[in-house]
Amino acid sequence: MKNSQQSKNSQITRNTSRVCASFAAMSLLGSTLLATAGCRSPNFGSVFSMSKSQEVELGQQAAVQVERENRIVTSGPKYEQLQRVAARILPLARRDYDVPFSVKMIDNKEINAFALPGGPIYFYSGLLDLAATDDEVASVLGHEATHIVKRHSVKQISDAQTKGLIAQLALGKSGNLAQAAAGIALQIDRLKFSRGDESQSDEVGFKYMTQAGYNPEAMASFFRKMGAKTGKGGTEWLQSHPLTDNRVKAAEKRANEYQQGQGGTNAVK
Q1: Which residues of the chain have pLDDT under 70?
Q2: Which of 9, 102, 181, 256 is deepest in the core (most CB within 10 A)?
């Protein structure tokens, strides 16, 4: 990789929460770019025409870049907590969308978590410090897993320079998929999931959380913690996952309705 690219890669540490969105244009824009170039389209015209194997490959290559630029934690109480929760949540997500889900912990005190296309999920240590209980960790993991299950990140649209990189990739002119993935990632600037995507991820994530036996109040509890952090810095997760009053109220209503149907549950402590 050229020196200029290496210099740009130093920015990835703060941009990893948006790597997932960079690959969306492959599905949404690939056909248009190839048609413009006078080439036959490989049918990447919509998110649902992008094959699962392509999605998984893109996510795995992006994961290589993430792990190259960040220190991955592989031991300790928080790591064990994350893996313990994942063992209960991810099989439920995989039942709905069969891709190789995984979750890893990044040593970074920012409050953040993100999902790449095709299965990889990353939690920053700062978020695990804030989400003190297994229940709250489960609420975030269920949410992030749903972004993969519903292919939300694959549907994001990138900027013009990113489109050019994707055109090269689709045309087979980039011999290094990982290099292209890194270049695309660097073009993403604070892309946000839509309100609809966030609402769906909250709803389905809640289903995973409760099916796994976690406290239904945990999602609302974590949202309140995140709301208290607004404007205080260190809340990268809120930049890509906007927290609105409606989301908090919906989480509280969902928990109340679940409790009424199940005969009540203990509150998060």
Answers
A1: 1-50, 156-192, 230-244, 263-269
A2: 181
